[in-house]
């Protein structure tokens, strides 16, 4: 069985998906309606830019509701994505547009931040 990894982005970034292994929320919603045998293998979804908590929750619920085979959609990365840093640490106004995660202090002068 093959596994294909797709980056999931908000519909606003549809141009980003051209010629890449990336899809928008609307494209994923359409793919969820395709019969399972049309797209062989597992599709692993990685969260990308512009996804709100609401987008993730709705898609995860829909994926779990449509699941015929437990191996069709791998949405694990959607559920366990890093929390974005607060707006005061980023120039972004909305959390779903923030690329850096909440900083974790390692010692007096070092911090670690996940990429969202």
Number of strands: 6
Q: Classify the beta-strand content into a percent band.
A: 15-25%
Termini Cα gap: 28 Å
Q: How confident is the prediction overall: mean pLDDT?
A: 85
Taken from the alpha-carbon principal axes, the silhouette is elongated
Structural class: alpha/beta
* Helical percentage: 10-25%
Order of secondary-structure elements: EEHEHEHEE
Indicate the low-confidence ranges by residue numbers: none
The helix tally amounts to: 3
Strand order of the largest sheet: 2-1-3-4
Largest sheet: 4 strands, parallel
Would you write up a description of this structure?
The mean pLDDT is 85. It is elongated and about 55 Å long. Helices cover 22% and strands 22% of the residues. With 116 residues, it is of the alpha/beta class. Strand 3, helix 2 and strand 4 (73-74) form a beta-alpha-beta unit. It contains three helices and six strands, in the order E-E-H-E-H-E-H-E-E. The protein has helices at residues 25-31, 53-66, 76-79, and strands at 3-9, 22-24, 42-47, 73-74, 104-107, 110-112. The longest helix has 14 residues, at 53-66. The strands form two sheets. Strands 2-1-3-4 form a four-stranded parallel β-sheet. A two-stranded antiparallel sheet has the order 5-6. The relative contact order is 0.16.
